[in-house]
Design brief:
Pfam families: DHquinase_I (PF01487), Shikimate_dh_N (PF08501). It comes from Theobroma cacao (Cacao). InterPro entries: Aldolase_TIM, Aminoacid_DH-like_N_sf, DHquinase_I, Shikimate_DH-bd_N, Shikimate_DH_fam. GO terms for molecular function: 3-dehydroquinate dehydratase activity; shikimate 3-dehydrogenase (NADP+) activity. This is Dehydroquinate dehydratase / shikimate dehydrogenas, putative isoform 4. The chain is α/β, with parallel strands linked by helices. The protein folds into two domains: about 30-250, Aldolase class I (TIM Barrel); about 260-365, Rossmann fold (3-Layer(aba) Sandwich), CATH 3.40.50.10860. It contains 14 helices and 16 strands. The protein has helices at about 5-10, 40-50, 70-80, 100-115, 125-130, 155-165, 185-195, 210-220, 240-245, 270-285, 295-305, 320-325, 330-335, 355-370, and strands spanning about 20, 25, 30-35, 55-60, 85, 120, 140-150, 175-180, 200-205, 225, 260-265, 285-295, 310-315, 330, 340-345, 350-355. The strands form three sheets. An eight-stranded parallel sheet has the order 9-8-7-6-5-4-3-10. A six-stranded mixed sheet has the order 12-11-13-15-16-14, sandwiched between helices. A two-stranded antiparallel sheet has the order 1-2. The termini are far apart.
Length: about 375
C-alpha cells in the first residue's frame, strides 16, 4: 500500500515560498495551454492568459490547421506577453501531429533559436534531440522532457526509474503524466514529486487525478495547467485557471496546507468546495477543500494516511462503509449506521466519524411543523 508519510511531505521545499508584497506565494507556476487552430486565435488567447494571471503559456503547435514555421514562430514569440512553452505533440504521444518526425524536431529547434523560454520534447526522442542542440542551447531555454501514460499510473519504483531515465537525457525539467484508474494512484505521483531533487512536473489525468493538478503546489511541483475555458483541455481533467486561482486559492497552497475534501462517487457536482474554500479564505485558514472521486473508501483512507489530509465530508455511496473505516464513531452516528463527516486527529492520525445529516433532517421537519 502506497501511503503519504507526513514527515516526508513536510520536508518538501517549503522554504521556496516567495513573499510578494507581504503575501506568501508558492513557486509552482500556472501554465495555460493554447490550442487554437490559427495563429491569430493563438495571439488572442495568449492575451487572455495574461489577463487571467497565468505565469506562462503552452503553445500547442499540433493544433494549428496551417503552419509556416519560421514566420509563425516569430509572430508567436514576439506577440506573447508571457513566457512561452512550445509543444509539437505527435500522435504517438497523444497529440495531433502526424507528419515527418525530422520536420517536427526541426520546428522545436527553430523555436529554441528564435527565443522560446521552454520546449517540450518526448522521452522517446529526447536523447537524440539533446545531442542535436549540444553547445547551441541558449542559456535562458529550459528543455522539458516528458512521458505520458494514457493507460495507468505505474508503481513508485517504476516511476522512480522513469524519472532517472528522463534525467539521463540532461533534461532541465522532468515531466511525468499518468492516468488515474483510482484516486489512490495519485499518491504515487505525490511521493515522486515530493522526493524529487530536480524540477518536476507530476500530473495525473482524469477526474480521479484532479487533485494532482491542485495539490502539486503543496508537494513542490514545477507547474500545473489551467485552461481558459471549461472543457477546452489539452489533457483530461484539467481545471480552469479561474478555478485554480479563485476556487482553490492556488497561489497560497504550500507544504503546510491542510487538505480536506468531499468523498463520493459521483462527486463532481458537489458545491462543497465553493463553500469551504471561501470560508477558509475568509478565516485566513491554511487549508484547501477538493473533490475526491473515491471507488474504495478503505484503500483511500489508508493511502492518504498523513495528518495533512485532515478531514472529509462523506457522501453517497460511502456513508455506511465510513462507519467501519473510522477508529472511533460518535454514538449517534453508530446508531444511525452512517457517517458523513470524518476528522483525522492531528496528534496520532486516528479517524473519528460523525453524522450531521440527522441534525439537518430534524431541523427541516421541525421548521415545517405548525407552531
Amino acid at each position: 500500500m502506497d501511503t503519504l508519510n507526513p514527515l516526508l511531505v513536510s520536508s518538501s521545499a517549503g522554504l521556496n515560498m516567495e513573499s510578494r508584497g507581504g503575501v506568501w506565494k508558492n513557486p509552482t507556476l500556472i501554465c495555460v495551454p493554447i490550442m487554437a487552430d490559427s495563429i491569430a486565435k493563438m495571439v488572442v488567447d495568449m492575451a487572455k492568459a495574461k489577463a487571467s494571471s497565468a505565469d506562462l503559456v503552452e503553445i500547442r503547435l499540433d493544433t494549428l490547421n496551417s503552419f509556416n514555421p519560421y514566420e509563425d514562430l516569430k509572430v508567436l514569440i514576439k506577440e506573447c506577453p508571457l513566457p512561452t512553452l512550445f509543444t509539437y505533440r505527435p500522435v504517438w504521444e497523444g497529440g495531433q501531429y502526424d507528419g515527418d518526425e525530422k520536420e517536427r524536431l526541426d520546428v522545436l529547434r527553430l523555436a529554441m533559436e528564435l527565443g522560446a523560454d521552454y520546449i517540450d520534447v518526448e522521452l522517446k526522442v529526447a536523447h537524440d534531440f539533446m545531442k542535436s542542440i549540444d553547445g547551441k542551447k541558449p542559456e535562458k531555454l529550459k528543455v522539458i522532457v516528458s512521458s505520458h501514460n494514457y493507460q495507468s499510473t505505474p508503481s513508485v519504483e517504476e516511476l522512480g526509474n522513469l524519472v532517472a531515465r528522463i534525467q539521463s537525457t540532461r533534461a532541465d525539467i522532468v515531466k511525468i503524466v499518468t492516468t488515474a484508474l483510482e484516486i489512490t494512484d495519485v499518491a504515487r505521483i505525490f511521493q515522486i514529486t515530493v522526493h524529487s531533487q530536480v524540477p518536476i512536473i507530476g500530473l495525473v489525468m482524469g477526474e480521479r487525478g484532479l487533485i494532482s493538478r491542485i495539490l502539486c503546489a503543496k508537494f513542490g511541483g514545477y507547474l500545473t495547467f489551467g485552461t481558459l475555458e471549461a472543457g477546452v483541455v489539452s489533457a483530461p481533467g484539467q481545471p480552469t485557471i479561474n478555478d485554480l486561482l479563485n476556487l482553490y486559492n492556488f497561489r497560497q497552497l504550500g507544504p503546510d496546507t491542510k487538505v480536506y475534501g468531499v468523498i463520493g462517487k459521483p462527486v463532481g457536482h458537489s458545491k462543497s468546495p465553493m463553500l469551504y474554500n471561501e470560508a477558509f479564505k475568509s478565516a485566513g485558514f491554511n487549508g484547501v477543500y477538493v473533490h475526491l472521486l473515491v471507488d474504495d473508501l478503505s484503500t483511500f483512507l489508508q493511502s492518504y494516511s498523513s495528518t495533512d489530509f485532515a478531514g472529509f465530508s462523506c457522501t453517497i455511496p460511502h456513508k455506511e462503509a465510513a462507519v467501519k473505516c473510522c477508529d472511533e464513531v460518535d454514538p449517534i452516528a453508530k446508531s444511525i449506521g452512517a457517517v458523513n463527516c470524518i476528522i483525522r486527529r492531528q496528534s496520532d492520525g486516528k479517524l473519528f466519524g460523525y453524522n450531521t445529516d440527522y441534525v439537518g433532517a430534524i431541523s427541516a421537519i421541525e421548521d415545517g411543523l405548525p407552531d
